[in-house]
Specification:
3 domains; YbaK protein; Rossmann fold; 28% strand; BirA Bifunctional Protein, domain 2; 9-stranded mixed beta sheet; 569 residues; globular; 31 strands; 5-stranded mixed beta sheet
């Protein structure tokens, strides 16, 4: 490809609404253009990256035994009503009526459509297992589209669905997809972690998220370097502490303390001169409409996904100030667990606490030396707070570490949630009719492109991993008006193409500095600079990542690039 013919409108300035590097750089480097909130044109450079990502995904999915299909993006409401998700999916689903006043939606996911296909065609255990996937557009009406391709309303996704005769085979395929995903992201040259995750609205028995490590990631992950345990903070388990032996011998008398206008944990800590971990935080939640109190150590935060899962609830929300007074008879900010009218559940972090501070149940007062078991009863100790860095791993006890990441893939073991609801059954070997056991596996194709930039960039621009770069190498003649430079550049360019490289030549009649800035901004992994030594048949090879430079004979550029790739550059 010749740069003079390439539609890659680069910009010096970032969009005013761009907050993260991928949004800024993909726009500046001519990969995307905004059409409307959450909607983007993908320009030629972006399309090349996406096609390379899709190629890797297709090759690995096909090698793993999956088969590609193409499903409609218009979904009839009847299928979603069968699964029970038409009303509960939420406002992210874009619904509309056709000319005959029939209800449809633009597919945000495809469990219903694929289940409908399989239930119509598969009747016997002999036709199972089956893994079908598609790569196509999805639509979700995000309440606040932001971060460019990271949280868009329209995006490209690979979604796969497997169907099995029994739970054992479904689990086998789950781990087959786990290994397949690991190979996919390794081939893309990305640093990633697979973590235990919440199943969310998709449902199912268990799931793993695949996160690309990046400081700007919205997801926080917890991991253990010793045993390999890894989980999202929504799923990360606390190691349940033992009840301190002889704790009752340490109990002190409860003391009522005047704390005028002091409500927040930070204020109580400062006012009383005690650390936040010596304070009990008490929150009132409505769990599927029923009020419960949840106690947690003062320096910890409740993770509402863990709370919902602990109660097996569909809906969890904090009570309003008015509801708190109605349910407890106490004012918000000074809640006391002593004499509470509703059941008190406590996070694991409360178990070791002795002689702690809690609200007194009246305005402007707190209590010192409160103890669970003596002063109030705990209905049950549950794991509902976000795990802290340095806490013991739930598997081996080693200190946990934190990183941030961007979710690019998610696999679910669905079980029979959809097959039972939609009547996707088969006749087993023993002649009985059974629901198919399902799995679900997604990769955000456009999100992978953005995540790769979040992980790989510097002040000059993008640094693409070789495997998914729009071009692998760019040939830059410093002066196209000089015959020896132009001719050698053309020769190198043709040789690189013959050797299988995806090459670009910057044949524009512009200043060298302009070309270098564009090459760095676009992020092509290797730059071949043809300049002052062209007459000697020598060029300069620059590695975009790190900026290392080598003088190379013009006929050996391809070999040098291969050598550098084998060396791990």
């Amino acid at each position: 490809m010749r740069f003079s013919r390439l539609f890659a409108p680069t910009k010096k300035e970032s969009p005013a609404d761009a907050e993260i590097p991928s949004h800024k750089l993909l726009t500046r480097a001519g990969f995307i253009r905004k059409v409307a909130s959450g909607l983007y044109d993908i320009l030629p450079l972006g399309a090349k990256v996406i096609l390379k990502i899709e190629k890797i995904v297709r090759e690995e999915m096909n090698a793993a035994g999956a088969q590609e299909v193409i499903l409609p993006i218009m979904h009839p409401s009847e299928l979603w009503q069968e699964s029970g998700r038409w009303e509960v999916y939420g406002k992210e689903m874009i619904k509309f009526k056709d000319r005959h006043e029939r209800d449809y939606a633009l597919g945000p996911t495809a469990e219903e459509v694929i289940t409908d296909l399989v239930r119509k065609e598969v009747k016997s255990y002999k036709e199972l297992p089956l893994n079908l996937y598609q790569i196509g557009r999805k639509f979700r009406d995000e309440i606040r589209p932001r971060f460019g391709l990271m949280r868009a309303r329209e995006f490209i996704m690979k979604d796969a669905y497997s169907f099995h005769a029994d739970d054992e085979d479904a689990e086998r395929e789950y781990w087959n997809m786990y290994e397949t995903y690991s190979r996919i992201f390794k081939r893309m040259g990305l640093e990633f972690k697979a973590v235990l995750a919440d199943t969310g609205e998709i449902g199912g028995n268990f799931s793993h998220e695949f996160l690309v490590i990046a400081d700007t990631g919205e997801s926080k992950l917890v991991y253990c370097e010793k045993c390999g345990y890894a989980a999202s903070t929504e799923k990360a388990a606390q190691r349940k502490p033992e009840v301190p032996k002889g704790r009752e011998t340490e109990f002190k008398e409860v003391e009522r303390v005047h704390t005028p206008g002091i409500k927040r944990i930070e204020e109580v800590s400062e006012f009383l001169g005690i650390p936040q971990e010596k304070i009990l935080k008490l929150l009132v939640y409505l769990v599927d409409g029923k009020p419960v109190a949840v106690a947690v150590r003062g320096d910890r935060e409740i993770e509402e996904t863990k709370l919902r899962n602990a109660f097996g609830a569909k809906d969890v929300r904090l009570a309003t100030d008015e509801e708190i007074e109605e349910f407890t008879g106490q004012p918000k900010g000074f809640l006391s667990p002593i004499g509470f009218k509703i059941p008190v559940y406590a996070d694991y972090s409360v178990i070791p606490m002795v002689n702690f501070v809690a609200g007194a149940g009246e305005v402007d007062y707190h209590l010192k030396n409160v103890n669970w078991g003596r002063d109030f009863e705990v209905e049950e100790f549950i794991d509902v707070s976000e795990v802290g860095e340095g806490e013991p791993c739930p598997e081996c006890g080693a200190p946990l570490k934190f990183k941030r990441g961007i979710e690019v893939g998610h696999i679910f073991k669905l079980g029979t949630k959809y097959s039972e609801a939609m009547g996707a059954t088969f006749v087993d070997e023993d002649g009985t009719e059974k629901p198919m056991v399902m799995g679900c596996y997604g990769i955000g194709i456009t999100r992978v492109m953005a995540a790769a930039v979040e992980q790989n960039h510097d002040e000059e621009g993008i640094i693409w991993p070789f495997e998914i770069a729009p071009f692998e190498v760019i040939v830059i003649p410093t002066n196209v008006k000089r015959d020896e430079i132009r001719e050698l550049a053309e020769e190198v360019y043709e040789n690189l193409k013959k050797k299988g490289f995806d090459a670009l030549i910057d044949d524009r009649n512009v200043r060298p500095g302009f070309k270098f800035k564009d090459a760095d901004l676009i992020g092509i992994p290797f730059q071949v600079i043809v300049g002052k030594k062209a007459g000697e048949g020598v060029v300069e090879l620059k590695v975009r990542k790190g900026g290392e430079r080598f003088e190379v004979e013009s006929g050996k550029v391809g070999e040098k690039i291969r050598e550098l790739l084998q060396g791990g550059i």
